[in-house]
Amino acid sequence: MHSYDYAIVRVLPRVERGEQLNAGVILSCAAIGYLRASFELDEAVLRCVAPGLDLEPIRAALAGIEAVCAGGEAAGPLGRLSPRERFHWLVAPRSTSVQVSAVHTGRCADLDAALEDLVRKMVRRA
User: Fold this and answer.
1) Is 126 in contact with 25 (CB distance < 8 Å)?
2) Cα angle at 41 between 104 and 51, to 5 degrees?
3) How many domains would you assign to the chain?
4) How far, in whole angstroms, is CA 66 from its chain's centroid?
5) Which tens digits make up the pLDDT trace of 39-57?
């Protein structure tokens, strides 16, 4: 069994209103250096909440999170940090249009399956 930490990634199309849409999950297991994010941005719902919103910066921010999770050159200087350090950087509070929830914990045997299950429960609209 693996203990893990996760945070929900949220999009706030207009930060001043505080309205948010869950867009993905970041999951980290420090013991084995696991760090991944999975996103399913419902652009149709986002457009209903914020007509005329430019989605390109949102897509770019989400892609940036994936790059930091993967590490390496594509993540720039952050890519040289350990997976745990990158997770802490990703979940630090921000007041931008892409934010993360508080960090939560869990346990599982399969981290990829846990990430998929969290996306299903927390992000997808049934």
Assistant:
1) no
2) 125
3) 1
4) 8
5) 999 999 999 989 999 999 9
